[in-house]
Amino acid sequence: MCQSDSAQELSVTFRPELYLQRRGWVLDIMRREGITEVLDIGCGEGELLSCLCNPAPWLAPPPPDVLLAANDLNDELAEMHQDILHPVKVAGLDISRSDLELAVQGTKPLPPEHKSGLWHEPTRWEPLEVKIWEGSLAHVNPGYVGVECVVSTEVIEHLPEDVLHAFAPVIFGAYHPRVVLLTTPSYTFNARFTAPNAPMEARSGWHDPTKRTSRVFRHHDHKFEWTVEEFTEWCNTVAEEWGYDVEIDGVGRAQEVDEWGRDEALGWASQVAAFRRREGGEWEEKRAGQVTRLGIQCQGGSEEGHTLLATHQHPAHEAARRPQPLSAVGTLVVDQMVDFRETSIALRELWFQGGIDAACGGWLDWLVRAVHVHHGLSLRHVVDGYTGGWQILLDASLHHLIPPKSQTDSSSPPDTDELGDPWDPYDEDIPWPDNSGEAIVTAHGEDVHVDNWGVEEVDWAKGVVDVQQAHKAWGTPATEWDCSSEWT
Length: 488
What we know:
The protein has helices at about 5, 20-35, 45-50, 75-80, 95-105, 160-175, 230-240, 265, 280-295, 325-340, 345-350, 355-360, 365-375, 465-475, 485, and strands at about 10-15, 35-40, 90-95, 130-135, 150-155, 180-185, 205, 215, 245-250, 270-275, 305-315, 345, 375-380, 390-395, 440, 450, 455. By secondary structure, the chain is α/β, with parallel strands linked by helices. Helix 6 (about 160-175) packs antiparallel against helix 9 and helix 10 (about 325-340) packs across helix 13 (about 365-375). The protein starts with a helix and ends with a helix.
């Protein structure tokens, strides 16, 4: 590289886009942990909340008093339930009214007459409650004490010093959720934007507004950007202080290979941490004691400092958890296969046909059991091809029920190539959405994207930043931070 080239910033792109990789990490952890309740702190326009509002294709397994588990069906059922979330309560908190208005719209129930254009309209089998709040994270909302999961992605780096001091006491102390998921930019990765010998002026961006360092940040509102070592130290300190175990990782590798071989050393563009609460009376007492010493009011208080902008109730289908007898479902399956002239059909495909899902009350387990006990049906596992997975087979003794197909007969289902697919958790070969081509991290290192939420409302032009206004925008309490008075 010549000297003139070293003064230029390097092209750094991500695929999938960096924001999608962060969201994917959050959703993966939620699936693994079986999360059903979520508070998204710093929810912005509600992209994550909107994802969580999508209904699961079927219910979680029924309780034993409804359908006893069968040992010979464990493999079939375990595979069908993996990677599916079943949220029942989600909430978002932010301080930007304009962003929250979009979150309110993006999480509201669709009108009954809405048609998605898919060959099977998504059915909701479990009710969902959504609440959108306006306010600072420095104030405790007693309604979320003990919430199962708190998410805060790309938020902590925007917090002024006093609100930052409240972050751990409020989230890990007052709310003490079972799981906390946190992401923040990696300052270590920022070296990837320039050559090793590049002059300081080659790196465009925003200088540390606090003047504590000479660092150049990716966004004008960032109050800090942690190195890998700084983030690790903060996470470990908070985890030990509040009784959590923490798993630290990262997301976002540049598509381009660094010609100086720094990719491994510089790590990920975004740092991520998954905190899991330590259980037991000793840890509960420790957390409660620290909350008391700080004067944090968690129980019996009001939502003072938070304004509820919207509550959405997404009702479940009227047939949810009200299945027909197994024999009736088995007969319906046979009738459907005969109508389609199919001697085998994918289990998940049949689920969306002819009211099978409603007949099973939303329980896929009910369909599996109905097939298992029917004398003319069986299950087979297929490991390759588009229809890989569990197949329902019609016994040869029933093939005579399928009438010969005539030239004018149109009773069989349309070719699936002509139809939009329903959401399928097992279609792993579906590519990531390509909303705007490759995500390019420019001088400021932020991935800019356009999605269903509209264009990022960010002024990327460098210039004078109103630091006081930016400071206010992230929910600074009306008074100076003081644990003895802020919480009471």
